[in-house]
Amino acid sequence: MARTLRDLRPVHVVGVGWHRYQNPSDTSYVTLGVTAIREALADARLEWPSVESAYIGTALLGMASGRPMLRHLGATGIPVTHIENASASGSTAFRQACIEVASGISDMSLAVGVDKRNPVRRESTGIDHLAEDAIAQFTHFSLLTNEYAHRHKVSFEDIARVAVKNHRNGAKNKNAQRQRERSLEEVLGGKRVAGSLTALQCTPVGEGAAAAIVASEEGIRRLGLDRSRAIRVIASTARSERVYEAGLGFDAVLTKETAALALAEAQISAKDLDIIELHDAFTVEELHYIENIGLCREGEGVHLLKEGALDIGGRCAVNPSGGLIAMGHPIGPTGVGQIGEIVLQLRGEAGPRQHAGAKTGFAHMVGVGAVCYIHILQAD
Amino acid sequence: MEPALLKPTLYTASGALLGGRCACGHVFFPMQTHGCEACGRHGADLQPLTLAGRGRLLSSTVVRFHADSARIAPFTIGKIALDEGPVVRALLVDPDREIRPGARMVSRMVSVGDSAVDLRFAPES
């Protein structure tokens, strides 16, 4: 790799906004998207004509959805690029906006994730398979849950506690799709989809939008933005799956190598992280990822969970937004929304979800394929 | 008459799996000629290799719900590390029972519908 984001000029997030993540409705994606963008502009105290480029993260809207949405902000003629990268679409849009600003091509760039729940269509590679058409995402993660429980002698009940924590966090988030606290009994008692996985341990895929505006130092100065509320992006890394040893979980190994690069770029270690927003589409994922990010050794995630170390107010607040399980996972918005949560936390503006003294936050997404995207943000 | 194989590009009537091996040594399933995931070689460097249909169970799970109503739940999916190296995910013979990880597994041909057979895995007896 020739250069990292950190080697280029500094990039700051100056504005974040959402349209609440929600169950599928007849709300148009245009309403979802412009609501989030207008909130981000207001948060940055910025007018739309100052934004010089836009990256649209969307996986399910189909071709060319961006311009028909952005024109309702006033058609300024800026370059518009659509990013599809499965669950990491929003994270990728954010990374591209950061790169655009870091490179000096723009001083002010928008990353917006927007999606409606539509059928997923993936073209055949021409290679047949034994049973992949029978294997939904929850089945893949149920297999991993069983492997994790067996390897580390952990109970399914303990793994399900991830959902209890994340529903508790989501209950305090007005933008979360699920805003209700759930007891362990409720989480375990719901409909079982595969193995021990119950519906409340799985992300609800819905619709919504999230926006983040990134700016250079020069842009912040020139437009007179509030420097004290700008949060710097100190690392951006992305990797895709390689060939791993048989039996290793590819999402976990991919996370491990991407996280190591991100922490090195940020010149910090995992113990310096105050906030982690990660891809907990299914409960077992949170344990896999915190272990592979390096918060603890493999198999020890449940101990941290049970002692409250991953709670808001604990050692490192993991998924204070509610995560994919409670905040929701409308696909395109998800990665951008993680950035928004971290920005609120590092500014001290997260209200009832505030993790006291948060200085450094880490956003992690994996996407089918498989890809992994990580950003680290730090308050001055 | 022999029943038709549901997926004849993937296995034989005796339950062997139709995999491949690259000149670099990487063994994969199923056979394909697009290119080797380990090294990128393609064409004649990728040659068919018959895999015996035996391996070790990494994990299994009983699926109780599927969006496609034609696929009747419950069914059990197993993740099997084949003796030759590749990891495959396949339906298990028993539709409603998880099997202990580490179990030795072997392929079995099972009737599906009126006139076809499909490959499943079951614990070695």
List keywords for this structure.
heterodimer; A: 380 residues; alpha/beta; Peroxisomal Thiolase, Chain A, domain 1; 2 domains; 10-stranded mixed beta sheet; two-stranded antiparallel ribbon; 12 helices; B: 125 residues; mainly beta; 6-stranded mixed beta sheet; 45% strand; globular
Architecture overview:
- The complex is a heterodimer of chains A (380) and B (125).
- Chain A is α/β, with parallel strands linked by helices.
- Chain A folds into two domains: 5-119 and 205-231, Thiolase/Chalcone synthase (Peroxisomal Thiolase, Chain A, domain 1, 3-Layer(aba) Sandwich), CATH 3.40.47; 135-192 and 233-378, 3-Layer(aba) Sandwich (Peroxisomal Thiolase, Chain A, domain 1), CATH 3.40.47.
- Chain A has twelve helices and twelve strands.
- Chain A has helices at residues 29-44, 66-70, 89-102, 137-152, 156-170, 184-189, 217-222, 250-266, 283-293, 301-306, 323-326, 334-347, and strands at 12-22, 53-57, 80-83, 108-115, 192-194, 197-198, 207-215, 231-240, 275-277, 317-318, 360-367, 371-378.
- In chain A, the strands form two sheets. Chain A has a ten-stranded mixed beta sheet with strand order 3-2-4-7-1-8-12-11-9-10. A two-stranded antiparallel sheet of chain A has the order 5-6.
- The longest helix of chain A has 17 residues, at 250-266.
- Chain A is globular.
- Chain A starts with 11 loop residues before the first strand and ends with a strand.
- Chain B is built from no helices and nine strands.
- At the A-B interface, helix 4 and strand 5 of A face strand 5, strand 6 and strand 7 of B.
